Amino acid sequence: MSLPVTDRTAGIVGELESFVDGLPAIDQHCHGVARGELGAAEFDDLLTESERPQPPGGNVFDAPVGVMLRTVCGPLLGLDPDVGGADYLSRRGELGASEVSRILLEAAGIDTYVVDTGFRSADITSPAELAGITGARSAEIVRLEAVAEALAEAGTGAAGFMDAFATELASQLQQAVGVKSIIAYRYGLDFDPARPEPASIRRAADECEKFAPLHSMTSSARDNRVGGISRPSAFAVLRLMTSSNLIGA
Ligand SMILES: [Zn+2]
Q1: How far is the CA of 31 from the centre of ligand 1 (A)?
Q2: Ligand 1 centroid from CA 195, angstroms
Q3: Residue 140 and residue 194: Cα distance in Å, rounded?
Q4: Closest to 208 (Cα-Cα) out of 177, 165, 248
Q5: Spatial separation of the C-alpha atoms in residues 149 and 197, rounded to whole Å
Q6: Do residues 12 and 102 lie in contact, with contact meaning Cβ atoms separated by under 8 Å?
Q7: pLDDT at residue number 6
Q8: CA of 178 to the centre of ligand 1 (A)
Q9: Taking CA atoms, which of 22, 93, 164, 178 is between 20 and 30 Å from 5?
Q10: In which band, very low, low, confident or very high, does the pLDDT at 169 lie, cut at 50, 70 and 90?
Q11: In 3D, which of 120, 117, 141, 201 has the Cα closest to residue 165?
């Protein structure tokens, strides 16, 4: 049942719509965009978060995400909404990756990007680069697991891990505006959110190092895609992060 729309309510709705349209949008969690040109296989790979290859004969452009991409982004690039995947890619090639990024990001109308820099950050634009494409603003969110992995990669052992982590995080938070964790992707949500005592953090770091020396676990941790099945060493890092309970603290 719908309520009768009077002139007055229609006027209020109209005012509200134009007010909302005029609000600068903040993307409160995003990542950079790809740098440079993408081949067809790379494009397919980035279009979905699935770790599995397309089924034989399958085409990601015919999956729901591909249909949305063609329908929404196609017209912005001067194409029909029902453009085929191959034509979409060749139009991208004609315009060039940086022009495509500019067109699509401008259409999104984002005023401020709040960027999680903890995933594939070497391959994609930094917060400043992302904002620079359209003259928007940016801020950084630090991914806790990435801080731990970087320390492990630098050779930080279990004994010094807790202090090193706190120092490094404090340093990064001089610039960044917040933190995030991907605990749910790698472990699930069934963890104790209570702040642990330092002794239990040390114990977790020791266990973690026994399981796999910290400096040797990063390559497998890093290779895991978001949402992927964790290998044991990455799992150990995440247990440690859970125990350190900086998540949501
Ligand atoms: Zn993210």
Answers
A1: 6
A2: 24
A3: 26
A4: 165
A5: 22
A6: no
A7: 77
A8: 12
A9: 22
A10: very high
A11: 201
